[in-house]
């Protein structure tokens, strides 16, 4: 969808259901970032959209000069980056009343400001907890208009998949068709425990090539990118057990901090990648 058509919706400040949806988004942000991390490695882009919804507020001194303005606005970011401490992204909405933010600004937030995430592959939306809640509160016609504005398939209300079903060996998502109008069979909610237990397919598939690369050029395991992250740092934050395992077997230091001071273990821990954390501990991380 175009930035100028990005929908903005209002909800009460004491909306408990919305707060719960946002909490689910924060708890599962790891899967958004994992997909973004692998997108950066793809030769051919696989994501049609990857966006975060975040809460933004003006500084107190600006709020004092704008007494009638909203204290908080929830807006969407694209071009998302995450370093283990902060999230960075480009604002694609024009604020309703905030004065210190503008469409196109590059903004930095911390995790508690995250209220939703979603990415799109082959027209299907993954994530979108607050979006699903808003859609549940719409009439059928409003929901159709909402989905048309975005231009993607949000699926059935109440079903929020985290990853494409083939990642975990499930059948493809059901497409909307003629019989969906007459109340066809319902989609089955994704098993989040099953998602948590499965490695990203790109992590599995790249193991052999990473092994060959590091065998051919052992020094690469120590090289860092422009953020000061080695392969081990990158793959720890992305939750890649296979990648971390290969790096450690080729001499990567499990205790070496990245440029921002975070060790591989700290990077894995910040998103709760338990298998990666255990493997790093086996290599001497504390």
3D architecture notes:
The chain is built from twelve helices and six strands. With 286 residues, the chain is α+β, with helices and mostly antiparallel strands. It folds into two domains: 11-164 and 190-195, no CATH class; 201-282, Alpha Horseshoe (Serine Threonine Protein Phosphatase 5, Tetratricopeptide repeat). The longest helix is centred in the first third of the chain and has 12 residues, at 16-27. It is globular, with a radius of gyration of 20 Å.
Radius of gyration: 20 Å
The percent of residues in helical segments reads: 25-40%
- Structural class of the helices, strands and pairings? alpha+beta
SS element count, helices: 12
Strand order of the largest sheet: 4-3-2-1-5-6
- How do the SSEs run, as a string of H and E? HHEHEEEEEHHHHHHHHH
Total beta-strand segments? 6
- The backbone outline, from C-alpha atoms, is globular
Distance between the amino and carboxyl termini: 45 Å
Largest sheet: 6 strands, antiparallel
| Mean of residue pLDDT values | 92
**Beta-sheet strand percentage?**
5-15%
Number of domains: 2
- Runs with pLDDT <50, length 5+? 1-6
Task: Kindly list the characteristics that best describe this protein.
286 residues; alpha+beta; Serine Threonine Protein Phosphatase 5, Tetratricopeptide repeat; 12 helices; 35% helix; globular
